Structure formats: structure tokens, C-alpha cells
């Protein structure tokens, strides 16, 4: 896989600074700087005196807003021209973000610094001797949450605090703040610690980018001050970091449009989220090259890089109607039933896929034949390509792909899969869907979908079916869960005090022998004992499950998965960029994990929604771990024999998953073909 080359030096002359670049400081006291132009994949390692011991709180119009790590010094610096503009000494040092209302060459330019700790701003103009301070909330008002995004447009500054949006107007000696209750947007994944969050100004519109496992994009309706979810940003790309953001024309940059580039200080890589198919691609690693690095930011020069200023199409474009021969739909239903009765199950599914009309007309019945095999069929990866119900079914062993449109699942997100059923959420509604029979079983609505992970105990056709959801908690010392009992058609909410801290992983719990097992990010096991009402129990096993998981932090780069197979519990830990890979089996007698080096004749399939362990259908595929990741449109897997990642159809092997693309709204399902 292609890696980033490093070019060292002191001069900035070798860096194409007129293109968007990633910039971060590194090393002891952050004395070194790295510039990574988006287009060439190179890391230019420099030592820029003006950036030594400075922390960048914002990047606008090609200028960096820098504040000293050890004093109240603050100034603007332009790496392209090497210009420096001194600013007044800071009032205090609790500022997190900075923004300019205009370019510093404009007399109307106002420099604004935002403190999320104090919910306040300070601002000044070039040449001022002091800063002016302004609160962002009125006395007595509560503005909760630490998440924040900042941007500017036409002289106004927009500051987003969770459900509040401040619009700040600047006058000669004071600022006027309008505080709007914009309500919390409906995120695809409940809010935990997001990988990326910020505001982006694009062609006169204000957008919010927010994401954990997946990214959501919202547009602020400037009239009603309501966040409207959007599915496309057209031919634009968004560049987003904690302290800076920009929107550019993909055509003029020569890159694919409708994509968001982002990174996070705990995940030292560049990621690209593709809004067309919902995939995330890992593009560039830096962890092993630089130590003690500061949060990266985007630097977009304010030069002759012309934007086409295309208006982003917010309203969803109308679907093109592909007119099919309606004669198919006019055939008698009895004729279809007769045809179906002579087909095997996998042929029946393929038959349906040949026509949209047949997908909706044909339903299986008891006469549909099924092949008998001594092996359990390998699971397929079901992934949703967009919000209109278009999904792919992919066979990782043979690289077969089928595309199907399921209108009932338009806008839905898959949460769990087992027993041939999908557990889906659609806004605040939860329901089961069977992709084979197209049957829908609704679940009584919860107040909102606020689950970090969710699972169910048995097929939803059973009266004993239990849905178990682990909810977002503000503290690892509290476990909050909700349980739906089908026999009582009711949700029961529980809160438990955790003597041992427990911060749940994003992978779904598993159900075995009457209890649910949840995995924490540091490898502990949480055990939930369901009852027929409010007497359920919860305990955290005191021993750390897997010491290699590292510290209990919300944004650890380790990804963990839990699997139930034939009454046994396994866990798999994947380190940063997929390495190292560790597999463990639960020893019930000691209730602790035991490392295993081989899966025997089994194959593992991992995802945050469903993970499976199944007997190998073909010789040579045992001891593999499949992930919802692709390299050049081919699936990749990890071999416990070679200790490397491999790609379907070629002899390449890799130590990690750099440059791979991952599906998010997906799940492994039992084969229906």
C-alpha cells in the first residue's frame, strides 16, 4: 500500500502552499511542523520559527491564529507570505477556537476567539490594544454540552453548542449576540465522543458536520434556525478538523466530490467519508512518524484558487423513474406461485433480483425448496448505499455482489442482525425486517433512539423475544439500559451503579444462556440478567478482560468485538489500523479471558452490528477474520496463520488496513442466496 513520504527541511519554499494542506506541530514543545498538501501525499517536515511553541486555534483565509503555549502572546501568521500580525495579549488562556470574519487585509476584519469552558468570546480588530469580551449566554440561561463548532460568513460568526446556535454581529466597540434554540439534530448514531464535529460555511450556507462511526451533515435554515439533514453536498468537498473547516470545489481540486475529509487527534490518520455510498477510507498514517503531535488543522490559502461558487443542492433530487415493462406486473399471481414452487431458495432470490416488479410481487411460500448442506452457509455482507433503500449483498468468499432496492428500508439504519432478521431504526422508530420474506414486525417506540449498542435474544416471531439496548451514559460509573419485552409490549429502563467503571464498546452485546454480555472498551464484561419487569440485574466482571486494550478512554483507537458461538463467548481486539489482532475465549470457570492463537476450522466475520463465528465452508479459509473493509473493491481479511491482511483475488499481503474503505451502515447476515 502506498505510504506517505517525508521531506525534511527548513524552508517553506518546497511546499505547494497554494493548495489545501494539513498542518500540525510535533516534537518536544511542538517545535517542529508538518505540512501535508492534500494532492501529493507527501509530508513536508519543517521548523517554522513563528510556529514554535504556538498552538493554532483556527485557520481562515490562509492565515493561522496562533497562541503561545506558555504565555498570553497571540498573533496571526500567513505561511504562504511569511507575514505576521501581532494581536493584544490574551485576557486568559482558556480559548479553544478562533475565527476571522474577513481576511486580515480587509479593514472590517474582526478576530474572534471562543472559550467553550466559559461560553464566551473575546474579539478585537487589527491595531487594537486590548480584547473585548462577550458572554454567549444570557444570565440564568443554561447552555449544556461541550461539543462546539465555529465558522463565519459575511461578517457574522456562528457558534454551535449542542442545541444552541449563537449568531454574533460585530459593531465598532461591541458585539450583539442572538441565541437561538435550534434543537438537537437527529444523529444517525447517538452522541458519544464524536470523531469530528464543526461548522462549515459553503456558498452562503452554514453546515454542521458531526460523526462517530458515520458522519451526518446538516444545513442550518437561517430563517427558522432549524438543522435540516442533507444527503449530498453535490460537487463540493468539506475539509473538517477540530479547529478549522473549509468547503472547496472538487472539480477544481481534481478529486471526487460529495466527500468529507477529516481527522481526530486520537486517530492520527486522514479519513475520507463518501456521502454517495456511506463508506470511510483510511488515507494517510502518521502515528509512527511523529511524537507529541498537536491537533491537525486545515490550511486553505486565500489566493487565486478560484471557486465556482456552485450552490449546494439541499433538496433531494427526484429519483429518475426507470420505466419497466408493466406487462410483468399484469401476469396472474398463480403463475408466479407455480414458477416459484419449482425453484430452489437461492434461485428464487436471484429470480426476484431480475426485476423491480418481481421484488415487490413475489413472496416465498412453503413450497420453495432449499439445498441441504453439511456446512452452515457463509454469511454475506449487507450494506446500504444511500438513504433510498438501495443495498448490496456481497459474498466475501467469491466476491459476488447483488444490488437490491428495498423501499421499506429507505432512510433506515441497521442496528443488529441474527436469526435471519434485521433490527432497524428509522428516526425514532425501531422495527424488525426479514430480507427474505420482506416481513416487518414493529417494536413499540422508545422515547428516542439513544442506544450505543442494541441486541435481541430470539427471533421476533417468538413471544420470548427481548430487545436489550445499552444507552449513552455521562459517566462510566453508571450503566443505563433499556429492555423491551415482546410478551408485555413495553420498554423498561434501568440504571445501575458500577463499582468497576464500564464504558461500552460500539459492538453489539451477545445473548447466551439467558443473559446478555456487553464488552467494554478496555475489555471488561458487563452481564445483564433480564427479568419479567423491573427486577433485572447488572454486574461488571471485576477482572480486566484484555490488558492490551489500553486506558479506558472514550476515543481509544482499539476496536473490540464480541462473538457467541455454540454457547461459548469470544472477543477480538483490533489495535490502531488493525494491528495487533488478539483473540480471546471466555473461561467460564474463572470468568476471565484466555488468549487463543487459532480459530481451528472456524471463520470469523466482524462488524459493530453483528459478529459471527462459523465453520469453514471451504478448505483453506479457516482461521480467517473478515471485516466490512475493501481494497480496490475487493474484500480484505486477516489471517491468524500469516498474521497479515490479505485481499480477495490477489497475492498481496499487508501489515495493516491503510488505504482501505469501510462500510458503516452494514451487517453480516445469514446467506439468503
Automatic annotation (TrEMBL):
Spans through the membrane: none
Domain of life: Eukaryota
Any coiled-coil regions, as ranges: 304-331
PROSITE patterns per record: FBOX
Keywords in alphabetical order: Coiled coil
Pfam families: Beta-prop_KIB1-4 (PF03478), F-box (PF00646)
F-box domain segment(s): 325-371
UniProt-recorded name of the protein: F-box domain-containing protein
Amino acid at each position: 500500500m502506498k505510504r506517505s513520504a517525508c521531506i525534511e527541511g527548513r524552508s517553506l519554499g518546497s511546499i505547494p502552499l497554494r493548495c489545501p494542506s494539513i498542518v500540525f506541530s510535533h516534537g518536544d514543545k511542538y517545535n517542529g511542523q508538518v505540512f501535508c498538501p492534500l494532492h501529493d501525499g507527501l509530508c513536508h517536515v519543517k521548523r517554522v520559527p513563528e510556529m514554535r511553541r504556538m498552538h493554532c486555534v483556527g485557520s481562515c483565509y490562509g492565515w493561522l491564529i496562533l497562541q503561545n503555549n506558555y504565555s498570553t502572546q497571540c498573533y496571526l501568521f500567513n505561511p504562504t507570505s511569511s507575514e505576521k500580525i501581532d494581536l493584544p495579549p490574551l485576557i486568559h488562556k482558556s480559548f479553544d477556537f478562533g475565527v476571522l470574519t474577513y481576511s486580515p487585509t480587509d479593514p472590517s476584519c474582526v478576530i474572534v476567539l471562543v472559550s467553550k469552558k466559559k461560553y464566551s468570546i473575546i474579539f478585537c480588530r487589527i491595531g487594537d490594544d486590548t480584547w473585548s469580551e462577550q458572554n454567549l449566554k444570557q444570565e440564568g440561561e443554561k447552555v449544556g454540552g461541550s461539543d462546539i463548532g465555529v465558522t463565519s460568513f459575511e461578517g457574522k460568526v456562528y457558534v454551535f453548542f449542542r442545541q444552541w446556535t449563537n449568531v454574533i454581529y460585530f459593531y465598532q466597540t461591541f458585539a450583539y449576540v442572538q441565541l437561538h434554540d435550534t434543537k438537537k439534530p437527529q444523529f444517525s448514531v447517538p452522541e458519544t465522543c464524536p470523531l469530528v464535529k464543526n461548522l462549515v460555511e459553503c456558498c452562503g450556507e452554514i453546515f454542521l458536520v458531526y460523526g462517530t462511526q458515520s458522519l451526518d451533515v446538516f444545513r442550518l435554515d437561517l430563517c427558522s434556525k432549524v438543522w435540516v439533514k442533507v444527503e449530498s453536498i453535490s460537487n463540493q468537498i468539506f475539509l473538517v478538523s477540530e479547529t478549522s473547516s473549509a468547503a472547496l470545489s472538487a472539480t477544481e481540486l481534481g478529486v471526487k466530490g460529495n466527500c468529507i475529509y477529516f481527522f481526530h487527534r486520537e486517530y492520527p490518520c486522514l479519513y475520507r467519508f463518501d456521502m454517495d455510498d456511506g463508506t470511510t477510507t483510511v488515507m494517510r498514517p502518521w502515528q509512527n512518524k511523529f511524537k507529541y503531535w498537536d491537533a491537525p488543522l486545515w490550511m486553505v490559502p486565500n489566493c487565486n484558487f478560484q471557486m465556482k461558487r456552485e450552490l449546494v443542492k439541499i433538496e433531494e433530487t427526484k429519483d429518475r423513474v426507470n420505466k419497466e415493462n408493466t406487462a410483468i406486473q399484469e401476469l396472474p399471481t398463480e403463475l408466479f406461485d407455480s414458477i416459484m414452487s419449482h425453484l430452489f431458495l437461492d434461485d428464487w432470490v436471484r429470480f426476484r433480483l431480475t426485476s423491480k416488479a418481481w421484488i415487490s410481487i413475489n413472496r416465498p411460500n412453503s413450497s420453495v425448496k432449499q439445498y441441504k448442506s453439511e456446512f452452515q452457509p457463509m454469511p454475506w455482507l449487507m450494506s446500504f448505499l444511500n438513504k433510498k433503500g438501495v443495498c448490496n449483498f456481497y459474498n466475501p468468499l467469491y466476491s459476488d455482489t447483488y444490488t437490491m432496492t428495498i423501499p421499506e428500508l429507505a432512510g433506515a439504519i441497521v442496528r443488529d442482525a441474527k436469526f435471519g432478521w434485521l433490527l432497524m431504526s428509522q428516526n425514532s422508530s425501531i422495527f424488525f425486517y426479514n430480507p427474505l420474506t420482506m416481513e416487518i414486525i414493529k417494536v413499540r417506540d422508545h422515547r428516542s433512539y439513544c442506544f450505543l449498542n442494541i441486541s435481541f435474544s430470539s427471533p421476533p416471531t417468538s413471544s420470548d423475544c427481548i430487545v436489550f439496548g445499552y444507552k449513552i451514559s455521562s459517566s462510566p460509573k453508571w450503566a443505563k439500559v433499556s429492555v423491551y419485552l415482546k410478551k408485555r409490549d413495553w420498554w423498561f429502563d434501568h440504571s445501575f451503579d458500577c463499582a468497576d467503571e464500564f464504558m461500552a464498546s460500539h459492538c453489539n452485546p451477545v445473548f447466551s444462556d439467558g443473559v446478555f454480555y456487553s464488552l467494554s472498551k478496555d475489555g471488561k464484561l458487563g452481564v445483564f440478567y433480564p427479568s419479567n419487569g423491573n427486577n433485572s440485574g447488572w454486574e461488571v466482571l471485576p477482572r480486566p478482560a484484555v490488558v492490551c486494550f489500553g486506558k479506558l478512554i472514550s476515543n481509544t483507537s482499539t476496536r473490540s468485538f464480541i462473538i457467541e458461538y455454540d454457547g461459548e463467548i469470544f472477543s477480538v481486539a483490533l489495535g490502531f489500523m488493525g494491528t495487533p489482532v488478539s483473540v480471546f475465549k471466555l473461561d467460564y470457570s474463572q470468568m476471565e479471558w484466555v488468549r487463543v492463537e487459532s480459530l481451528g476450522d472456524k471463520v470469523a466475520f466482524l462488524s459493530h452490528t453483528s459478529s459471527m463465528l462459523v465453520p469453514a465452508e471451504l478448505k483453506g479459509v479457516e482461521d480467517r477474520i473478515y471485516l466490512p473493509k475493501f481494497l480496490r473493491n475487493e474484500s480484505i481479511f486477516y489471517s491468524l496463520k500469516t498474521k497479515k491482511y490479505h485481499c480477495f483475488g490477489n497475492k498481496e499481503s499487508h501489515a495493516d488496513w491503510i488505504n482501505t474503505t469501510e462500510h458503516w451502515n452494514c451487517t453480516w447476515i445469514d446467506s439468503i442466496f
